[in-house]
Amino acid sequence: MTQHGATKWADVDPSAITHNTSLIKQLVGEKTAVMAVVKADGYGHGAAPSARAAIAGGATWLAVSSVTEGIELRKAGIVEPILNLGYTPPSALSAAIAAKLALTVYDREGLALLKTAATEIGVHVKVDTGMHRLGAAPQEAVQLAIDVDADPNLRLQGFWTHFADADQDPAFTREQLHVFLDARSALIRAGVTGFLSHAANSPGLLRFPEARLDLVRAGLILYGVRPVREWADLPGLRPALRWQTIVTNVLTVPAGGSVGYGRRFVAREPARVAAIAVGYADGLHRHASDRGRAIVRGVAVPIAGTISMDQAALDVSTVPGVTVGDVVTLIGEEGGATLSAHDLAEASGTISYEVLCAISNRVPRRYL
Ligand SMILES: Cc1ncc(COP(=O)(O)O)c(C=O)c1O
């Protein structure tokens, strides 16, 4: 049903996030903390509601990708420790300190910047073990961590790395972990202790128990989606988001008639076509034109023709009785049919992560 006249919405079930977090917590055990990765607006689920739900499920840390995202959580009243996984620009430092964000450091410039603040800051030093994006080379990271530890204001809270391919390349992942653990040993040999070691994202924590260490950084699986659709890990995971819209028009297209821009869909025989109120400006990737599906009246039907900015069309020839106002499900379960974020990702030529993050602000989130 539409509420307040909405023609599209995403229902988010925070209790699913709480449940998924508690499954992750059970999996990793008492000694390993769970950091809930709620960057990118909680992978499209809403950062603050996702953070609260994950904390209720046993997460004790939160992760964001920028100072701005961290401040947003603080403004929402969230008091738990928050790590900025990304770069902190000099112009954002005082705001980051005021918000009591823990900050990632991976080079001398970053460390020098934090020292200028001359106030207490929690620091996580990032080691580059093969991702070659952010992170200091192992030896340099060890020295940075030693220097952080020696500073009277800075607190070395974490020493961490990030896997490049934990869902597909076990050998490379193990090599990354090996490099990381060697660096950690060097740090401990230098007399530095009392920090959290962390490496594992969702695929890492699921498939490499030895990589769970002191803390895991769980993103995608918090939201009930596995990194690889064929994986059956954590069978109880529950997807937390359902994306729906409505039928806005139903028409018969005669044989030879086309639908939408570019006349990509041409009816071979008379076709029943339903327009829906979601387009690429809502996050329905244009690549899913003629490839994706949506559920109407419990049947998964194909997208017909080119997805436009605000609308798309479905071929509902096989579904009797489709009428204006019928609810259409793009991600979720309805009437016994299910379409997952993976289904939409495959049709869109991308990954489930992107499909979820791409659902735009124009789609109101409704919290169950
Ligand atoms: C540094 C870092 N850690 C953890 C995660 C969480 O990854 P996942 O969603 O696979 O759990 C991300 C997400 O991209 C990340 O960038």
Supply database-style keywords:
nine-stranded mixed sheet, TIM Barrel, alpha/beta, eight-stranded parallel sheet, binds pyridoxal-5'-phosphate, 30% helix, 368 residues, Lyase, Ornithine Decarboxylase, Chain A, domain 1, single chain, 2 domains, 19 strands, elongated
Oligomerization: single chain
* Bound heterogens, unique: pyridoxal-5'-phosphate
CATH homologous superfamily descriptor of the largest domain: Alanine racemase
SSE order, one letter for each helix or strand: EHEHHEHEHEHEHEHEHEEEEEEEEEEHHE
Figure out the total of helices: 11
The third-level CATH topology of the largest domain is TIM Barrel
Assign the CATH architecture of the largest domain: Alpha-Beta Barrel
Tally the structural domains.
2
At the first level of CATH, what is the class of the largest domain?
A: Alpha Beta
**What share of residues is helical?**
25-40%
The termini sit apart by 14 Å
Can you characterise this structure?
With 368 residues, the protein is of the alpha/beta class. It has two domains: 14-223, Alanine racemase (TIM Barrel, Alpha-Beta Barrel); 241-367, Lyase, Ornithine Decarboxylase, Chain A, domain 1. It is built from eleven helices and 19 strands. It has helices at 14-28, 39-43, 47-56, 67-75, 93-98, 108-117, 138-150, 170-189, 202-207, 341-348, 352-358, and strands at residues 8-12, 33-37, 61-64, 82-84, 102-105, 121-126, 154-160, 196-198, 215-218, 241-253, 258-259, 265-266, 271-276, 293-296, 299-302, 312-315, 327-334, 337-339, 365-367. A hairpin with a 2-residue loop joins strand 14 (293-296) and strand 15 (299-302). Helix 7 (138-150) runs parallel beside helix 8. The relative contact order is 0.14. The chain binds pyridoxal-5'-phosphate (PLP). Residues 37, 85, 162, 201-203, 217-220, 227 line the site of pyridoxal-5'-phosphate (PLP). Pyridoxal-5'-phosphate is lined by residues 37, 85, 162, 201-203, 217-220, 227.
